[in-house]
Prior knowledge:
By secondary structure, this protein is mostly helical. It is built from five helices and no strands.
Amino acid sequence: xxxxxxxxxxxxxxxxxxxxxxxxxxxxxxxxxxxxxxxxxxxxxxxxxxxxxxxxxxxxxxxxxxxxxxxxxxxxxxxxxxxxxxxxxxxx
Length: 92
């Protein structure tokens, strides 16, 4: 299953769980696999939370959130939070 038309629920559950190092199983190369932390960050970005708010809720540093967001954007081929939410909701 590809990401087009996927809902937030599908993005989370597509494919197989990531390994410890976050690398997906090559058998499922077309799927998007987010780590549990990336899923949590993605949920909060979609709710409109800032990096500081996300960091506070997850108990980590805002700079770490920036890294997670970059990884999410790269995996989902988006450039910003607006594109992320559009992709999650299937608007693209």
